[in-house]
Amino acid sequence: METDADTKLYALIGNPVTKSLSPFIHNYVFDFLNQNKIYIAHKIDKGNLANSIKAIKALGYGGINVTTPHKINVIEYLDDLDVSAKNIGAVNTIKIVEGKLMGYNTDGIGFLDMLEENEVELRGKKSLILGAGGAARAIAIILAGTQISHLSVSNRTNERADLLIEELRQVNKEIVFSNAFKKHNFREFDLVINATSVGMFPNIDETPIDLEMINEDAILCDIVYKPHLTKFLKLGLERGHRVIFGIEMLIAQALASQEIWQGTKIDKVEIKRELQERFS
Ligand code: ATR
């Protein structure tokens, strides 16, 4: 990747950012599209968020991704929010046009894209989301807009799950929402999504649920992508489950950010294939 005086800047802001795969993914896309753009990562503390946004505007960045801990706090510095960010209440993508900052959230849409690519049928299906944090919220809200019949949430801190379920009930009256806290039988679920950080490096021997409690026909998704093969998915594969890797969602949400910045659809099939091969 070469830069010159016209190179357009893109970045990730968050803390920590050192282990992020986003620079690799986005620079790969810019190269693939033969564009004079570069993507870097900035470690930004909470106290520096306001100044960083000012700097990003002043330096003429084309767009940024936002990660922990700024996904909610960044909203006050934006000029407008897309419906995706409004619904989720958090921003992971900002597009900057003539100094105006527009906030989006591609976590949910990335998740749906990934299910679609894996030809997962949602109509009438029952889903279980493990977790009630930011990622779980984005996934739950997007699933609440689909034709699933039942959505359950289970979280270590039960009150967070209750709050999320209350909110989901306002989004769609057709779906049955429930709390699966302390439930011991998850056999009714067709789709089980780990949206917690359980199993993430360095705690790679942890799994968010006892697989024995799940129906063997259930499809398992993990948002954790480090390691690629989490304990949850490894045990799932051993039991014959169909599994979807965290890297697939990461790539899908990154490509959704790219389409926002590019202002047009991009040919994602080849990019995804190449990227997934590199990370698996
Ligand atoms: P993110 O934005 O990545 O979702 P988060 O909002 O901090 O991050 O949420 C992390 C999720 O992982 C939460 O559901 C958290 O459960 P709590 O709400 O009880 O904190 C869950 N989580 C993290 N570590 C966990 C652990 N060791 N066991 C069970 N759940 C865990």
What would your notes on this structure say?
The protein is an alpha/beta fold and 280 residues long. It has nine helices and twelve strands. The protein has helices at residues 22-32, 49-58, 83-88, 107-117, 134-143, 158-171, 231-238, 246-262, 268-279, and strands at 8-14, 37-43, 63-66, 80-81, 93-97, 100-104, 126-130, 150-154, 176-179, 191-194, 219-222, 242-244. A six-stranded mixed β-sheet has the order 2-1-3-5-6-4. A six-stranded parallel β-sheet has the order 9-8-7-10-11-12, sandwiched between helices. It starts with 7 loop residues before the first strand and ends with a helix. Bound molecules: 2'-monophosphoadenosine-5'-diphosphate (ATR). Residues 68, 131-136, 155-157, 160, 196-198 line the site of 2'-monophosphoadenosine-5'-diphosphate (ATR).
What's the SSE blueprint?
Layout: E1 8-14, H1 22-32, E2 37-43, H2 49-58, E3 63-66, E4 80-81, H3 83-88, E5 93-97, E6 100-104, H4 107-117, E7 126-130, H5 134-143, E8 150-154, H6 158-171, E9 176-179, E10 191-194, E11 219-222, H7 231-238, E12 242-244, H8 246-262, H9 268-279
Parallel strand pairs: 1-2, 1-3, 4-6, 7-8, 7-10, 8-9, 10-11, 11-12
Antiparallel strand pairs: 3-5, 5-6
The structure holds 2'-monophosphoadenosine-5'-diphosphate.
The site of 2'-monophosphoadenosine-5'-diphosphate (ATR) has 14 residues, from α5.
Keywords:
single chain, 280 residues, alpha/beta, Rossmann fold, 2 domains, globular
Structural class: alpha/beta
CATH superfamily of the largest domain: NAD(P)-binding Rossmann-like Domain
User: Nearest-angstrom radius of gyration?
Assistant: 19 Å
**What is the fold-level CATH name, i.e. the topology of the largest domain?**
Rossmann fold
| Apparent shape | globular
Helical content (DSSP H or I, runs of 4+): 25-40%
Mean pLDDT figure = 96
For the record, the CATH class of the largest domain is Alpha Beta
- Termini separation: 23 Å
Order of helices and strands: EHEHEEHEEHEHEHEEEHEHH
Approximately how much beta-strand content do the residues carry?
Answer: 15-25%
Strands side by side in the biggest sheet? 2-1-3-5-6-4
Helix count? 9
Low-confidence stretches: none
Bound molecules: 2'-monophosphoadenosine-5'-diphosphate
Integer tally of domains: 2
